[in-house]
Design a protein that fits this description.
It is built from five helices and six strands, in the order βααββααβββα. The protein has 139 residues and is of the alpha+beta class. The model has no long low-confidence stretch (mean pLDDT 84). Helix 3 packs antiparallel against helix 4.
């Protein structure tokens, strides 16, 4: 993904407001932010088309692995429909429940184009299985 230029960055309070209309994943992400979850918005612009391709593949992979994401397919559909050449990305990491939220915003950070969430518990379990297979951890 090609990164270029810089865009607006938002604070926690603004992000909470922007997530009000971001669907089920946005609602969960708002709750995480309200509970003081870690968040970061990167100001570098990222080309949208490669992001769409990447998240289409990731959506297929999550379905194959039976991971239960929040709003993944909806987010891919919203990215495909957004008609913006560039976006900025952000993350929110909640501790309980352990979720990683991926945020997609326009360069002016005026709204949330898409939001998705993935359980960190499934990712951790998959990593532990890989490490056990290669005998890097006991178990």
């Amino acid at each position: 993904m090609k990164r270029c230029a810089y865009a607006a960055v938002v604070d926690r309070e603004t992000l909470v407001q922007l997530l009000a209309t971001a669907g089920k994943a946005g609602h969960a992400c708002r709750q995480a932010l309200a509970a003081d979850a870690y968040f970061e918005i990167w100001p570098e612009l990222v080309e949208t088309l490669p992001l769409i391709r990447t998240y289409q593949r990731r959506a297929r992979l999550t379905r194959r692995k039976n991971v239960q994401p929040l709003g993944f397919d909806e987010a891919v559909t919203q990215l495909e429909a957004c008609e913006l050449q560039h976006l900025i990305l952000g993350i929110v990491r909640s501790a309980e429940p352990a979720y990683h939220f991926q945020l997609f915003l326009p360069p002016d950070a005026s709204r949330v184009v898409a939001c998705l969430g993935v359980s960190c518990n499934q990712w951790r379990a998959d990593l532990q299985n890989i490490l056990r297979k290669w005998q890097w951890v006991e178990g």
